[in-house]
Amino acid sequence: MKLNEKGLLVIISGPSGVGKGTIRKALFQIPDNNFCYSVSMTTRAPREGEVDGQDYFFVSREEFERRIKDNALLEYAEFVGEYYGTPLDYIDKQMESGKEVIVEIEVQGALQVQERIPEAVFIFIVPPSKKALIERLEKRGTDTPEKIKKRIEKAEREYSLAYKYDYIVVNDEVTNAADRIYAIIRAEHAKTERSIYKYYKLMEGKE
Amino acid sequence: MKLNEKGLLVIISGPSGVGKGTIRKALFQIPDNNFCYSVSMTTRAPREGEVDGQDYFFVSREEFERRIKDNALLEYAEFVGEYYGTPLDYIDKQMESGKEVIVEIEVQGALQVQERIPEAVFIFIVPPSKKALIERLEKRGTDTPEKIKKRIEKAEREYSLAYKYDYIVVNDEVTNAADRIYAIIRAEHAKTERSIYKYYKLMEGKE
After folding, report:
1. Helices (H), strands (E): how many in chain A?
2. Which of A113, A156, B51, B192 has the fewest CB atoms in 10 Å of its CB?
């Protein structure tokens, strides 16, 4: 029996190249989960194999900037010349229906969400070592050397922001990291601040 | 990879009759756990089948009061005319060696521990309903009707103290409750306040 029936907003963040996307995929493989996927929106070009509406919503700069103006994004960031953001629309509805909404975003975006929704769960994914992160960024074949250099510099600036998050999870092995995030989600539901209201109602014998 | 290498002190508490002991036993059945057992000390008589040094250390009032005076107990409480307490000795050593020390105690004792060791993890076990708790207390065949009445009154006073704990876990089904506690322990290790020091050392490349 879960005392908190509303779903959580779970922010999976961390420096670029740390494996956030792979961890999110592993998380969704966990049996009997009630996770729901928040698809991000971006102005960057699709990489090979990426599907619109599944990996990202791929939109034009004009379209993206219209949404910024309409305040229709949970957060957004400009990164290496491209916009990335999270459409706000169905997130609330999913949480109300008891789904855990898993959002994978860059550090800049996560900190925007934290100002807007401090009760969300903020998880910072880190590499097992600095060397491992740099290797992963260099191996990514889709960017120019100049872009890779920018990414490494940005990752180095982002290291120091870990203290702003609720949890730090090491991506030493993808399934370990996903299991730990699942444990965090279960634990967060049991937190007194989230569960005490329903508990007192139970003890009154009203439910 | 766990960023926090020190074991946690995990306090499992809640009103008498809620099933704390059964949950603790289920917790120790979880494979590959590194839990360690803190055996309580009491002046009450052993129930049938209880083994000294395993279920409790059964001691005299004189012996117990000497330990109170020596400050050699993590906490203690007098309950229905008998003392219950937790010997302090090996707890610290176990935590230093990376073991999670699981302590099962009454509400009064848990709140004493909270003053002394606020960084411990405080879990309040609750029944699925008030009716379920009263039934469990009545079924316990080892006490006199007078003692049962005292237990129910005490449990009712303790309901309202849930807000002082970090987590509330419903004992609807023992293995569910134990699994949720295991998730809490894993999540607590990933908490930023416990893991950031080791993380920054990793990022410096020192480890």
Report:
1. 8, 9
2. B51
DSSP class of residue B81 equals T
Q: Among B174, B195, B200, B207, which would you mutate to test the A interface (most chain A Cβ atoms within 10 Å of its Cβ)?
A: B195
Which domains are present in chain B?
9-38+99-203 (3.40.50.300)
- Buried (b) or exposed (e) across A107-126, using 16+ Cβ within 10 A? bbbbbbbbeeeeebbbbbbb
pLDDT in tens, B120-147: 999 999 998 888 878 877 776 667 888 8
Q: Of A4-8, A44-48, B198-202, which has the strongest mean pLDDT?
A: A44-48
Task: Tell me, rounded to whole angstroms, the distance of Cα A168 from its chain centroid.
Answer: 13
Tokens 């989600």, residue?
A185
> Do residues A13 and A165 lie in contact, with contact meaning Cβ atoms separated by under 8 Å?
yes
d(CA A175, CA A177): 5
Torsions phi, psi for B28 (to 5 deg): -75, -10
CB contact under 8 A, A166 and B128: no
Encoded tokens for B144: 């006199």
- What is the number of other CB atoms lying within 10 angstroms of the CB of residue A31? 4
Dist CA A172 CA B50 (whole Å): 44
The ipTM, to two decimals, is 0.82
A12 membership: H or E segment, kind and range: strand A9-13
Beta strand B9-13 pairing with B121-126: parallel
Contact of A185 with A8, CB cutoff 8 Å: yes
- pTM for the predicted model, two decimal places: 0.84
- CB pair distance less than 8 Å for B128 and A180: no
Contact flag B124-A167 (C-beta cutoff 8 Å): no
